[in-house]
Amino acid sequence: MNKIVLEVIEEVVHSDNIFTDEPMCKHTTFKIGGNADIYVKPQDITELSKIIKICNLEREDYFILGNGSNLLVADDGYRGVVIQMYNNYNSIEVKGNSIVAEAGALMSRIAKVAYEHELTGLEFSAGIPGTIGGGTMMNAGAYGGELKDVITRVEAVSREGELYTLGKEDLEFEYRTSVFEKNNSIVTKVTMELKRGLKAEIKARMDELSKARISKQPLEYPSAGSTFKRPEGYFAGKLIMDSGLRGKQIGGAKVSDKHCGFVINTGGATAKDVVDLIDFITEKVYADFGVRLDTEVKKLGSF
């Protein structure tokens, strides 16, 4: 642990929001991962900017964490600073047909607020467990909807700790990526433009998608959601199923019997179990179909 970095961070962030040797398995939906050297929860953008500048000055690695819903942390943890944007930075404000949300707001919560204000366009996100900050970074989507369809403005912090704003035309949204992932910036606030809708119809669509998720996805097990990106012209889950890998297990990591696109933690899985299973799946599918699968799941630490 870099004690100098810790001491300087303690000068700008209240001690209640700084943790050392923090178990990352507590902060990911996979429930896997070793300890982070320093774990900090900034109260606002000023603290966030200062922490980033401290890390840059001391040449310390850092990682921005939302709800940990798309993350696999190494078994030996992370030798750096984890900056969590979820708990302390999650306000949601409705302005006419627009919703302005801070990066740590859960997409499911934003969708609920939209429903309560009779705004349509976010029904697809009601069951996504991630934050709007992380979702914007990767242009999260489901059931035919994507965040690029509704986002009009994003405030962010550069890797140098400087604040800036981009309009819709500069966001460079593509399938599961954006300008923020390309330049490693940090999303801090998102503006979404929605449309007026009928509350009953919005609720019906949300209920329909919720039932589909429950019936088709292994929500009863820890996972990072869909493990693989959709290859062009194919569906990852079907390729895995057609390779005979339904239920394939390495250690505590398993290809879900319910949906082959999910690698789940059956209990006690290690990050190595998950990586070994992902590698096995990738090679088998490539050997069978000549299609190279790419993961949606992000890795943190040394693998």
How would you explain this protein's 3D organization?
With 303 residues, the protein is an alpha+beta fold. Helices cover 28% and strands 24% of the residues. It contains eight helices and 18 strands. It has helices at 3-9, 45-57, 107-116, 132-138, 179-183, 199-216, 236-242, 271-289, and strands at residues 18-23, 35-40, 62-65, 71-73, 78-84, 92-95, 98-102, 119-120, 141-142, 145-146, 151-157, 163-167, 186-193, 195-196, 249-250, 253-255, 263-265, 298-300.
Task: Give the secondary structure arrangement, pairings included.
Layout: H1 3-9, E1 18-23, E2 35-40, H2 45-57, E3 62-65, E4 71-73, E5 78-84, E6 92-95, E7 98-102, H3 107-116, E8 119-120, H4 132-138, E9 141-142, E10 145-146, E11 151-157, E12 163-167, H5 179-183, E13 186-193, E14 195-196, H6 199-216, H7 236-242, E15 249-250, E16 253-255, E17 263-265, H8 271-289, E18 298-300
Parallel strand pairs: 2-5, 3-5, 4-18
Antiparallel strand pairs: 1-2, 6-7, 7-13, 8-14, 9-10, 11-12, 11-13, 15-16, 16-17
Order of helices and strands: HEEHEEEEEHEHEEEEHEEHHEEEHE
Main sheet: strand order: 6-7-13-11-12
Q: Tell me the span between the first and last alpha carbons.
A: 19 Å
- Computed over alpha carbons, the radius of gyration is 20 Å
Which consecutive residue ranges, at least 5 long each, have pLDDT under 50? Answer: none
Shape: globular
How large is the share of residues in beta strands? Answer: 15-25%
Q: Number of helical segments?
A: 8
| β-strand number | 18
